[in-house]
Design brief:
mainly beta, 13 strands, 14% helix, 5-stranded antiparallel β-sheet, globular
Length: 160
């Protein structure tokens, strides 16, 4: 876990409300008026994001597409729940069944957690139109479970 502490210190990472640690690394100066958004948004934003073993990023959704990029550590599982109730798990990182980038479509509920045997995952997320906490919704365990009762186990495990 020394590497986790080193990354937190090196990049000035702070606790994220959904879990893990993050820091914004980029915010475009180009502002866009986008239908469905309550005001202008940067064309793109980017963060570093770190999850260590025993932690998770709770189910949440945003109004933009979010592209995840793997940097170092071991694999990260990204659980994506589309509006129709289909759950897909993507493995971000090294390995035959893994990818180094993945885009979570706008409006999908998603959560992430280190894969079994992972000590940490250091990744990045690029959002377009750019991220604003006004566009962020953290899932309520009871409400999301009621909407998707067949997925109650994973929802209960990955909600705060």
């Amino acid at each position: 876990m020394d590497r986790v502490r080193a990354l937190i210190d090196q990049y000035g990472l702070e606790a994220h409300p959904e879990g893990g640690y993050y820091v914004r690394t980029y915010c475009s100066q180009t502002l866009l008026e986008v239908p469905g958004f309550p005001g202008p948004r940067p064309s793109s934003t980017a963060i570093y994001f770190l999850l260590e073993a025993g932690n998770f990023s709770a189910f949440h959704r945003i109004k933009s597409d979010e592209c995840w990029h793997f940097y170092e550590g071991q694999s990260l599982l990204i659980h994506v729940l589309d509006p129709g109730g289909c759950l897909q798990t993507i493995t971000l990182g090294p390995g035959k069944e893994s990818v180094y980038q993945y885009v979570v479509p706008a409006g999908c509920w998603f959560a992430s957690e280190p894969a079994k045997g992972t000590t940490y995952s250091f990744v990045g997320c690029t959002v377009s139109p750019g991220f604003d906490f006004a566009d962020f919704e953290l899932a309520g365990k009871e409400k999301l479970s009621a909407a998707y009762p067949d997925l109650r186990e994973i929802i209960n495990r990955l909600c705060r």
